[in-house]
Amino acid sequence: MIKGDDYKQRIAKLKPNVHMGGKKIDRFDSRLIGGMNVLAASYDLAFDPEFEGVGVATSHLTGEKINRFTNIHRSVEDLLNKQKMTRLYCQEVGGCILRCTAADLTNGLSIVTSEADAKYGTNYYERFNNFLRKVQQEDLSIAAAQTDVKGERTLRPAQQKDPDLYLRVVEKKADGIVVNGAKAHNTASVHSDEIMVIPTRNMMADERDWAVAFSLPSDWEGVKLINVAFHPPQRRVLKAPYTQYGMVHTITVFDHVFVPWERVFLCGETELAGKLALLFALFHRHSYTGCKAAFSEVLTGATALAAECNGIDKASHVRHKLAEMMQIIDLIYASGIAAAMNANKYPCGTYAPDTNYCNAGRMLAGEHIYGEYQALAAIAGGLAATLPGEDEFLSEETGPYLQKYLMRNPKIPAETQYRAFRLFQDMMASAYGGHKLIDALHGGGSPVIERVAIYRDYNIEHSKNIARKLAGIPFEGTTKKIDRLSNAVL
Amino acid sequence: MIKGDDYKQRIAKLKPNVHMGGKKIDRFDSRLIGGMNVLAASYDLAFDPEFEGVGVATSHLTGEKINRFTNIHRSVEDLLNKQKMTRLYCQEVGGCILRCTAADLTNGLSIVTSEADAKYGTNYYERFNNFLRKVQQEDLSIAAAQTDVKGERTLRPAQQKDPDLYLRVVEKKADGIVVNGAKAHNTASVHSDEIMVIPTRNMMADERDWAVAFSLPSDWEGVKLINVAFHPPQRRVLKAPYTQYGMVHTITVFDHVFVPWERVFLCGETELAGKLALLFALFHRHSYTGCKAAFSEVLTGATALAAECNGIDKASHVRHKLAEMMQIIDLIYASGIAAAMNANKYPCGTYAPDTNYCNAGRMLAGEHIYGEYQALAAIAGGLAATLPGEDEFLSEETGPYLQKYLMRNPKIPAETQYRAFRLFQDMMASAYGGHKLIDALHGGGSPVIERVAIYRDYNIEHSKNIARKLAGIPFEGTTKKIDRLSNAVL
Amino acid sequence: MIKGDDYKQRIAKLKPNVHMGGKKIDRFDSRLIGGMNVLAASYDLAFDPEFEGVGVATSHLTGEKINRFTNIHRSVEDLLNKQKMTRLYCQEVGGCILRCTAADLTNGLSIVTSEADAKYGTNYYERFNNFLRKVQQEDLSIAAAQTDVKGERTLRPAQQKDPDLYLRVVEKKADGIVVNGAKAHNTASVHSDEIMVIPTRNMMADERDWAVAFSLPSDWEGVKLINVAFHPPQRRVLKAPYTQYGMVHTITVFDHVFVPWERVFLCGETELAGKLALLFALFHRHSYTGCKAAFSEVLTGATALAAECNGIDKASHVRHKLAEMMQIIDLIYASGIAAAMNANKYPCGTYAPDTNYCNAGRMLAGEHIYGEYQALAAIAGGLAATLPGEDEFLSEETGPYLQKYLMRNPKIPAETQYRAFRLFQDMMASAYGGHKLIDALHGGGSPVIERVAIYRDYNIEHSKNIARKLAGIPFEGTTKKIDRLSNAVL
Amino acid sequence: MIKGDDYKQRIAKLKPNVHMGGKKIDRFDSRLIGGMNVLAASYDLAFDPEFEGVGVATSHLTGEKINRFTNIHRSVEDLLNKQKMTRLYCQEVGGCILRCTAADLTNGLSIVTSEADAKYGTNYYERFNNFLRKVQQEDLSIAAAQTDVKGERTLRPAQQKDPDLYLRVVEKKADGIVVNGAKAHNTASVHSDEIMVIPTRNMMADERDWAVAFSLPSDWEGVKLINVAFHPPQRRVLKAPYTQYGMVHTITVFDHVFVPWERVFLCGETELAGKLALLFALFHRHSYTGCKAAFSEVLTGATALAAECNGIDKASHVRHKLAEMMQIIDLIYASGIAAAMNANKYPCGTYAPDTNYCNAGRMLAGEHIYGEYQALAAIAGGLAATLPGEDEFLSEETGPYLQKYLMRNPKIPAETQYRAFRLFQDMMASAYGGHKLIDALHGGGSPVIERVAIYRDYNIEHSKNIARKLAGIPFEGTTKKIDRLSNAVL
Question: Which chains sit next to C, with 3 or more Cβ pairs under 8 A?
Fold first, then answer.
């Protein structure tokens, strides 16, 4: 386990391959620093005594203390603690903690590599465990590069005019493979030690070249990070934690990149490509039941603070709206608890949460986020948009006017009220805030995808049998046994 | 533990005090039999080997096997099993199992009676345990009589012109008390062995007469059950389980009724009246996370069956709608799991589920039920309303026309399709079905009540502190500790 | 123009062909009388001086005063008046006025028959006008028989195994045609003078036999009305207008029925079949902007009455809910006004309302009706379900208890409160009420159908051009002209 | 009537009083130019032959052609044309046209000044008409300064500790009055010729000082514009109309400002203060039925364009979502048509739209805007957030990668797809886009305000009477007459 400063020093050594504003920029460029601060927090918070028992786990490989983001879940309790850690940390940084992908990817790989070995006699699992040992010992951060750019949506990978529209193996060598393609929507890739590539979907028998998974240092030869950056507007004087953090995303180009075999974890096993894609999504959606609960809690707290500033915190329509937000927080978090309680234990010993509960919670989170912003905007009022900048609040000429005319709740100092509305404006009427809405809708899988998954995974015949039985229509099987109601592992 | 037939024989011995259609009617009147069949099922299902480990518990008083509806929850597992039993049984009868009140009332009383003793030196807890021992040994059913008729809603009990508008003690005697008043919306009171009365709300210091709890046999002297009954339309030929069940409700009048001391469990301890009211609501809402999940599952199964009959089960808008219904089921059930996992253990040893998770789930269930009916109606189509009766389907003159013209999915026999749409019509276009919507909205507490409770019980200052911290506004306390995220009892 | 009693006497002369309960029943059977009372009202209200200028129109054929239900719309004002009449009459009977189909069908036929003549040299329009003259002079009611039973939904009429699953011409004779098939969901057919058959959908070139429209007296040889009836529970003592009305629906079987040529209005002109289907739907949905507004007004009034009885009419959440209901009423009605203001005048002189505005309003109405019932149930509370029957309220033994314990708002007499809650129970917890929900969802076209129609009829390229222009993307055409914004006919 | 360039030259002559970034800035500062471009468009579009008959009106004072934004509505057709113009112009600039306040304020004043004269013998109406003549002849733009900063929300103006928290008259002189205070959320004040002040709410008899209305040139002595500016990110190469426009808002401070009597239109007539506030809101909400329909059309067009780029425009869930957006457009616009059709003609000859229809439409618009953004984000996908900047698209090193990997629909050139997603990012993930959401929620009155207004203005007793009549409960009055159903002025 290392600290945030150690992490930053390591990142400082990476070779420049981040493209932005038409040039290669330094990883410590001011536009990128917000994301790096978040990742640094993921290291420091593990040492915080207030989070004891949450942020630190014990490696099943070495028995040593490790940052929980590098842990393989070996029990229901591990899953519950990962969810809890994710929520608590996200509340600290006011948004995404950026590092859950490390755990979500490695847990998925632990299952799929061991299954590949069992099925095909490969030795992926040992190779993966060697890699994982290094991740745990060096406390590495890992960015996910899953979503292919996908070209024409109605065509499969092998049908695209340009075969690179899904990342693929273009050459196999004695010491490794050469891949070509690009992955989109890669969050925090510029601040991460490693970038891990996995398939975006299931693959057919003739799509072996596209069934590939591997991990590379983020500054590896041929890897190009074409970046876009978001962060709240910076402040000159009235500084606040919220504005220290940010998010960046890349289209990550792999231009004929060589990957040594010891970093390859799937290569041509088409039957397992889709499984790996789904398992990462599953672990990631379980993480979302933590982070989205936190994000909703931040919005709820902000909305309550707005009500207090406006002196309307006793109005019944305000309390009703806040109660709805609290309900959403609890339902999202509850779905993650239920998913953990109904976890499946795989032969390799890894615990994976229940799929439907994860999807139900993630779908709820995705569909409600616009409504939560609407609640904050509704209760904060127009000032969240029309608040003048801090220069106006601080200038000799206009400052006294704003001190006088921004006063609402007489129990709260003017500067506190100004700081509160500045937070609301930053959260909503900034590029960062606007982009967060889209991120919160799509990140980890859009609601429409969860909807499809929920239908697919539900035992609809069982439900129909219940109706058939009540209607006096013959049916096969029993209506009485239902999985996913109890916790087999309690 | 007894069987359904034993239960019915016991009910047959009750003295007639059920008023309906302008007269006293027999408890085996055809209008009432549906509810009795449900309660009988609650006895029989406990013996069903498919429900092993679910329906039977071990008494903490006697160590004997008891029907779980009479059990005091002594662990998280007890709470999870109660929730599970409730869901599974409700799926069998296609609606409310009618008996959860027995467990919900007694669990609430176990806490409040022991607290009263600790606080006031009373001996309610022993008295209650004696009563409970009898309930467990004789396997008694208990109907809840909580909701007072309440008169003018804006006035408190002591302020009403007519003091009886909240049930109250009108006389204290050496051997017991005399009560007067009425309780509304009492479900299944006519089929239950006992009727248990508890306060409907908190009481002020000057409202001692209204702070009263007791239990009486349902045919006790002076108890009058003014009844309304609902059941699906009965069938002559095409019989089905759904139509065997029903629900009845009474306004239960207590006309100067004497209650012996050994049946009195609260009498004047105003500070505990509200607590008992809330605890019953809490246990009951936790039960709802089971029964409402079941009710939604019945609706989902019916909707899927309708889609199959109509041959539209592959249409994407149909699958999306079904996925939404499945999501609701899982979120409701998940909230009950999370509530159990965050249970509080009281000094007497009783485990009570977390309040907010219960309220979040119950509120979701209440607010979505109309939408679920809408989904069934939308996918079933107009025939759910316009289906002719079974006489038309079976008659020589019109039967052949209906056999010909009701055919939709050619893979499903005409009679099966008829039976399916008959179920849909019974579920929606019947007095029973219409009343179920209202019942599912209000039973166990209306969404507006849960909304108020969620706001009241949430730690809103903690949420605000998270926002304050991010905004750079001073605050007191920590943002880092949050209860209700982990399971202290795992 | 005739009065309700004249109408009833005419109906009394119809030959018995209504099948219910396994036998042929009289049209004055108590189960059917509710619907007949509604139709009678459609005659009487036209004579009511309070509705002057609304219910009476002037025939463009004869210049005589006619009941507006038999009028062809010759101006925007006609459309506005028809909408207004529909709303006002529906408010009087507390639901569907049952007779709008007469106007909606004949207006559609006026356009299609004249277009057929122009295109094919037929003489349908004259034939239709002769029929219409009779309808106007004799003041006939006409039930619509549009929806075919449709068999397997994914197959077209000509592809069904059983060709009769869409009603079709099986023989052409010198003096007429012979048709076979059945139409479903035919409302008020048993009380109507005429039953008019039109196609349910567009027809392909090889589906000539299914492209047929005609009208027949409702007791015509070979027409069989297989009936289902709904009405509120009848009262013994506490009578009320609401319970006098009802609705019945038939599957109408045409078993090799002969139709004389003078009653045939389309026969084989496949290109016009879909147009007729859509035009009837269009006029009917415009009528819905009147009747659904009325139905929502009834629900809003009932909800406000419930709030008053419960003494919560000043609570802000109650007023917010009522405001939402009022908003829906106004939006539905506004869409009908806008549709009239953007009417198209056809060459024959008939005015048809704008399609998209009608669909927008009808879709809104359909999707919100469950929410309106939910609002009524939420504000009325559980008593809407659990209210005992009038026998209990009136009996000597239980009446005094109910008089005492049902008292809520002390300013309102007990009987008034009882009557109010009886209305709520009848509206929601009765077979009639439950069936009304389904009827209000699907009648005149389900929301999903309007959704499809809205997309189909919208000029999406124009919308995209607006976006393209703003994005600096080349496009063809102008962004500046938009139809349907102004009233060309003002 | 003047052109946009003439307008800009006039604005260039204004004295500097715009405060931003801690200093006084020029009105042609690049951060402000977007808003000025919009206002210039409001002048130029009136000369566009494609908008003939829409943008130009005839002055009832002079008979001359005037820009419709300076017109007093003298007929239903005027109201319909104003609504139409607003929609068409807003579609051209992709957002608010910024100038409707001119018409909305002057129409309100025409009514209130004439009523004041009738009631108090003042001569405001003549004074107002003199002012209006100048506005029409010089084609002036007028910004609204209505919303007071309001201090403690639960206190009335006269109760605030600081009496300036509502703008007020502090001195009356022979030649005019002196006012002190500030108005918040003043849009486009920095680009407007005039700033017009009206009350924000009703006033009590003891609040004469706060019942004041007047208009001043926007650079008048003592007027300070404390500004915040929003505009889409500017482009270096791939320029687009959308990015030329913007919005700015000020807190407008009136520091002991002198207003000559000829510019004072209300001063102490407390009974008319609330009426003026409501009338402006009314006309403004009617304008919103035009502009919000346009804004929704822009979002709908963008969403359809996104679907086309992504190749999913035939997916049924995409079409359903687009149909919902189309429905909202039509319902909003329909409510404005209905409001115009039910206009009230005031004694002075001004036509005001119906209140409830306006509120119903505005409330719908306000409550749905977040959902429309969500639809665009859902269908555009994550790329709307993660799209790299134009520098990356155009650079030699990364451009070819983006040209290759951003390709989706192979029928659409890469640059077009890039431009489309750039529009989506600018609309959503920019400070401008985020602020537009808040603006669209609150501008013209928040939904919660319309909700209150709808309830207040509805004839709820009439609705209750309908329910009472159906229930057999006595009532006073008739159920048969309903205003607002017909168009008295057709």
Answer: A, B, D
